Amino acid sequence: MRMEFMLPRELRDEVGRRPIVYVPWGAMQWHGEHLPLGQDALKVYGICLRAAERTGGVVFPPIYVGYETLKLYGDYPFTLEFSRDLVKRLAFELLQQLEAAGFRVIVLLCGHYGRRHLEAIREAVEEYRAGGGRARVLAVPEYEFARDLGYHGDHAAKWETSIFWYLYPSMVHLERLRELRGVYGEDPREHASRELGEKAVKAIVERLAEEVEKLLEEVEEQ
Ligand SMILES: [Zn+2]
Known about the structure:
single chain, binds zinc ion, 4 strands, alpha/beta, Rossmann fold
């Protein structure tokens, strides 16, 4: 289901059967000493793969092009800050081209959620729609599907650490975390766990898959 690994024949079959594409969108951004730089994209990538297992469709490679990263707020090493225009343009052109490739439901799952970064993506979606875009588009941060659990998005703190821990068990290094620089939310050393991550991921995947099924039904009714 990973688009870049698929043969044309496999893609033709899947687009004919379930014309859904998931785009995991993150950033290259500091996430404390305990998490990798690609956390935002890898997090939503893991979620997209699980959702696609349920709904069918394909998963686009993770995107590491973020605007309004921590770079705007301090000296956070290895963080890449791209421009608003680039993010918006990339989202817009992706929508156009994925539609042209035959996809009818396009999910932009945002693992990086600087407010202005999300705004840029949403503007692209609006312009795509206003320009007659025919695919159904869902552009949301993953925490939208787990608000009732108390998850409203954090940064390398309790929730992101837990989710990452569940998805990539060997890639969380809490023992390296001394000061909470660039960690926003509850202290992951006290509050993060794989179990919490599992609970959050399962809820997000289930609800995301339901939403995607609905959108696909709408498309099929047309
Ligand atoms: Zn993050």
